[in-house]
Amino acid sequence: MMDLLPAPDSLSMPGLIIRATILLSAALALAWLARKGSAGVRHLLWTLTFALLLALPALSLLGPSWNVPILPSSGSPAPQRPPMSMEALAVDVAGDTRVPPASSHTPAPKAGHAAVAVSDPVSPSRSIPLALLLWGIGCAAALASLGVGAARCSRLLRAASPLRDPVGLGQAEEVRRRLGIRGDVRLLVSPTATTPMTGGTWRPVVLLPRSSAGWSRERWSVVLTHELTHVRRRDVLRQLVARIAVAVYWIHPLTWVAARQAAVAREEACDENVLALGTRPSDYATHLLALAAAANTDHPVLSLPMGQHLPSRADLL
C-alpha cells in the first residue's frame, strides 16, 4: 500500500503547513470578498480562522485517512511462482544431451563450517531535525514576547488607581447601558499610560491616562464608547487567540498578513459602532488624531491601545 495523500494522523510539519496554507488562503479570499461589508463580520472571520489554526493538530488526528493501492511496498513478500515440472526444466542442448534439472534440495552446511553474517543493530537517532529546532526557537521567542507584554500590562494596572471623577463615571455607566454590557468594568487612571487602552482577558478593565482629567465631555463619550465596545466584543480574548496562533505558525508568512488584517478589522468594527451611536465622523477623527499624537506604544503591551488605527476618509464618509 502506498499513501496517495498524506494521512491526517501524521502530525508532520509539512502537513500542518499545507493545511494552514489552505485555511489562510480561503480566509484571505473571503475577507477580500467582504471588504466592503461590515468590519465586525470580517473580524469574526479572522477570529474563527485563528481558532481553527490552533485546532488543526487535533483535527488532523480526528480526520479520516485515505490509502490507495498503487505500488507494492518494499516490505511486502514477492509473489511465488508456481512449481515447474521436471520435463520443463530439462533443456535439449545438442539433440541427445539434456541438462539435468537443478536439485530443489540444498545440502545443509556441515556443523562447524557454516558462517552466518549478523549485522549490528542500528541505534535510533536522537537528534532533533533542524527545521523543528528552528520552529521551536521562533515559537518560544514569540510566546516570550507575549509574556513580556502581559507582564507590562499587569504593572500598568497595579500602578493605576480607580477613577473617581463623577462625570466620567456617569458617562461610563450610560455608555455601558447603551451597549448592553451586564458585567462590571473597572475604570482605572494610570500615571504612565499615554493613551486609553482596554485590558483584562476575564475581568475587563479600561485604563485611562492622567490627562483624561482635562478631557471634554464629548471626548469622554468617544473614548468610553470605543473602549467599552472592545469589552462587549471580547476583543482582548480574541487578540490573545490571534497572538498565540501567530506564535505557533510564525514561520508561515500568511499568518502575519492575517494578524495585521484582523487588527485593522477589529479597530474598524469599534469605529463603526462609535459612529452608529451618533458621533460625527469629523469629530471622531479629530479625537483619534489627538489621542494618537499623545500615544507612546513603543513597548509591546497585552492590551488594546486606542489611537493606533486612524480611520481613512472613506471609512468616515
What does this structure look like?
The protein has 317 residues and is mainly α. Helix content is 52%, strand content 5%. It contains ten helices and five strands. A five-stranded mixed β-sheet has the order 1-2-4-3-5, sandwiched between helices. The chain is globular. The N terminus and C terminus are likely disordered.
SSE inventory with pairings:
Elements (H helix, E strand, L loop, with lengths): L12 H21 L5 H24 L23 H4 L40 H30 L1 E2 L3 H14 L6 E5 L6 E3 L5 E5 L7 H16 L2 H14 L4 H24 L4 H14 L9 E2 L7 H4 L1
Parallel strand pairs: 2-4
Antiparallel strand pairs: 1-2, 3-4, 3-5
Helix pairs in contact: 1-2, 2-7, 2-8, 4-7, 5-6, 6-8, 7-8
Question: Features of this protein?
Answer:
mainly alpha; 317 residues; 5-stranded mixed sheet; 52% helix; disordered N terminus
- Class from secondary-structure proportions: mainly alpha
Q: What is the number of strand segments?
A: 5
Largest sheet: 5 strands, mixed
Radius of gyration: 34 Å
Number of helices: 10
Beta strand %? 5-15%
The residue fraction in helices comes out at: 40-55%
Q: Note the gap between the termini.
A: 62 Å
In short:
It contains ten helices and five strands, in the order ααααβαβββααααβα. It is mainly alpha-helical and 317 residues long.
